[in-house]
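Obj.: predict assembly geometry.
Materials: sequence records (below).
Method: joint structure prediction, all chains together.
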Amino acid sequence: MARTVTERADILPLLGEVFREHGFEGASLAHITARTGLGKGSLYHFFPGGKEEMAAAVLNEIDGWFEANVFAPLRADADPSAAVDDMLERTDTYFRSGRRVCLVGLFALGDVRDRFGAAVAGYFARWRDALAAALTRAGRPAEDATALAEDAVLAIQGALVLARALDEPAVFGRAIERLRGRLQVRS
Amino acid sequence: MARTVTERADILPLLGEVFREHGFEGASLAHITARTGLGKGSLYHFFPGGKEEMAAAVLNEIDGWFEANVFAPLRADADPSAAVDDMLERTDTYFRSGRRVCLVGLFALGDVRDRFGAAVAGYFARWRDALAAALTRAGRPAEDATALAEDAVLAIQGALVLARALDEPAVFGRAIERLRGRLQVRS
DNA sequence: TAAAGAATGGACCGATCGGTACAGGAGAGC
DNA sequence: GCTCTCCTGTACCGATCGGTCCATTCTTTA
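Observations (raw C-alpha cells):
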C-alpha cells in the first residue's frame, strides 16, 4: 500500500481545522479522514486513544504555540510594554483577524469542557496571569493589572464570538485596537 | 395513553437547557426525550421540523425575552442610563451570574451558525444597536456610543466564555461590574 | 354518548457513529 | 534476497443517530 510518510505533527493543524469547524462531537471520523487523507488505520496508529487523544494533542499544540510566542515573552521580555504590543499583533495574526475561531474557547462552552477542563482552564489562566505580570512590570499597580488582564483576555474571546456571530470579522480588529489603547502605559 | 397536557411553550426552557448543555449536534433525541419526558411522537407533533425547528423555537423565545426585557427599554426608556443599569442587572440574572452559557453565542461558534445565521446575527446586532442608541440618548457622541456598545456586548460574551473555561463564575460578575463603570455617564 | 381531533409512546427504519481487526504493502537493516 | 517493523486501507462491529409511522388514549364538542 502507498506509504504517505506522514509525521504525527504534520496532521495536527488539519485536525485543528476539523475540530474548529465541527466541534468535538461534530468532528466525525469521516470528516477527519476526508480532511487528513488518512484512513482510520493510520489515524488510530498515530492516536491509539481515538478522537479524545487527537483533540488533546491539538490542544497541546495550540497551548505550546501560545506559551512560546505569547505567554513567555509577556512574563520575561525585557520590554514589557513591547511584549504587550506583540501579544496583540500575534493574537490578531493567529486568529486571522477574526476569521478563525478559538478552539479552546469553543471547547470551553461545550460539554467537552469536562473532558479537557484542565487544559482549557490552564490555557486561559496562564494567558491572564502572564499578561498581568507584564502590566505589573510596566508599572501598573497590581490590582489594576489583574483586572485589565482579565478584561483583555475576555475581550479577545468575546470579539471572536461576536465577529463570527455577525459574520463581520472587522469586529475583532476594532476590539484589538481598543485593547491597544486600554493596555498602553499611561504617560 | 397518559396525556400530559403540555403546552409547546412549556417545554421550550427544557429544550434550551439540553441545547445549552450539549450544543445542537450533541443534543440527541434521546437526551431531549429524557429531559422533557416527552416521547418522540409528542416531540414531532409539536415540532414537525424536528431538531431544527426545536432549536429555532428556542432561539426565538430567547430573542423575544431579550427584545422585551432588554432591547426595547434601551431604545425607548425615558431614562436611558437607568435602562443601561437595568440591562446589566437583567443580563447578570439571566446568565445566572456566569453559571449559564449563552446559547446564541454557542451556536455562533459552531457550524450551526450557517443554519441559524440570521437569528444569531440579528440578536447581537439588535443588542449592540439598542445599547448604542441608549448611550447616545444619554449624551454620548455617536462614535463613542457605537464603540462602547460593541465593546460591552462582546465583553459579556467573552466573560461567559472565560467564566466557564476557568470554572470561575465570579469572572462574569467582575466583568459586569467593570462595564457598569465604563458605560456610566461621566458627570 | 358518539364522533373527531389532539396528544402520546414506542417499534421500527436506514444511515452514520466511534472503534477494532487484520491482511498486506513499503522501507530499513542485513 | 530476506525479514521485521512500520504504516495503511478497509471490512466489519455494536451502538446510536434523526426521523417515520401507527395504534392507542385522552379531551373536546355537540
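Conclusions so far: DSSP finds nine helices and no strands in chain B.
To do: check interface contacts against the pulldown list.
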